Amino acid sequence: MGCKKPRGRQTTTVETLITGSRKNSEVLITRKGGVPSSRQESFGIDTATYAICPHNHIDEWSNHGMKIPECADAYTEFNRAYRRNKLPLVPIITNHTEADPNGAIKIEELMKETREDIEVGVGVELNLRFMDRKFHVNVLFKDKSNIPYTPPEGVNPRQRRINIDELRELKENEDIVVILNHPFWQAKTQYIDQLYEIVMALLNTGLIDGYEIINGAYLQNFTKRKSHEKLLKMEVTNRLLKIIYTIKCYADFTSQNPKTLLAAIGASDSHRGEYVGSSYTVFERISDNIVDDFFEAVENGDTNAVVDDIKSSLIIIRCIKILNRKFQRILNKCITTGELDYQAFQRLAKADKKPENPEKNKVK
User: What letter does residue 66 receive in the DSSP assignment?
Assistant: First the structure.
């Protein structure tokens, strides 16, 4: 007979739970260590896929966005550190002020000093009024040499608004795609179910091509001062509920409308360089034109939203777990959590001695 193991409490760190070896492991190692070659294609980072972030802000005249060199440097550094020998992550510039093709071209030129295969896209983030609520939508233009939108004369560009009829007219007359950004970012707990119904109604207008299911800046701000253990144990606060409902709304809409194409979008919402790469969107490479291929992928609902740091991955998987396994199956097709998979999350949750309170964590 073999020796019995001591009964003393066994201590296991978060890192060993995530990266610990097991037979036929599906757990990815950390981004700094690279991604196992057997998983590269499924996680959308090999040379058969493009990676794009369709939500970035530059502003040369205020503190509301990155300066042009900061944006170019942040993307260049991210690609050097994490996407070596892969097609680079590239931005679409979506200022709050107005579409800025000249700024995009400058960033393109700076990034091409280190990578040749760069094409920076252009859009504008507008305030959409719908059913007495304000939403942010990114209107992305396929051709940055012909951009029709500028704020009306005499209107502060930061106050620019568009209503649903104007958005419909813009879609009918221009070659654009429309992405609904962070739909629950202003939600209050007591009104979140009402907002959910309004978001569903907005999606049912048929004017929204893509849905920002992951907002990297929000996740970074949410997790940066919290440990892995605290993120596992925390109850469902209003801030966590916003993430849950963002995921739930997409899953509900796509399951209820299987013939309607709605692209899952991951974006960094980068107002500062530190957010670059916090989330992005991957899609199949068809041609050598990343913007053309992105438009086609969005219009076909054929995209994958990526978040690949451990804390953000933990939160996304936890939210899916709170919703239930039905949503897990749906969302596995459109969300990639690059450093933490569902099995690793389950091991982390089992290591946590404090069970979740099902009543406090209940989501309809």
Answer: B
Nearest CA-CA partner of 265 in 36, 53, 111: 53
The Cα 25–Cα 20 span in angstroms is: 9
Element at 49 (helix H, strand E): strand 49-56
**pLDDT tens digit sequence for 201-248:** 999 999 999 999 999 999 999 998 898 888 888 889 999 999 999 999
Beta pairing class for 280-284 and 49-56 = antiparallel
Give 225's contacts (C-beta < 8 A, 6+ positions apart): none
Beta bridge partners of 107: none
Report the C-alpha gap between 93 and 140 in whole angstroms.
9
For residue 39, CA distances in Å to 176, 266, 339, 342 come to 33, 20, 11, 15
SS3 179: strand
Residue 263 burial (C-beta neighbours within 10 Å; 0-12, 13-18, 19+):
buried
Please tell me the distance from the alpha carbon of residue 220 to that of residue 317, in angstroms, as a whole number: 15
pTM for this structure? 0.83
- Which phi-psi region, left, alpha or beta, contains residue 63 (left: φ > 0; alpha: ψ -120 to 50)? alpha
Q: What tokens appear for 32 in the block? A: 């700094």
Distance of alpha carbon 330 from alpha carbon 325, whole angstroms: 9
Query: Count of alpha carbons within 13 Å of 352, Cβ hemisphere only?
Result: 18
DSSP state of 39: G
pLDDT digits (tens, 9 = 90+) for 91-122: 999 988 778 888 999 999 999 888 777 899 99
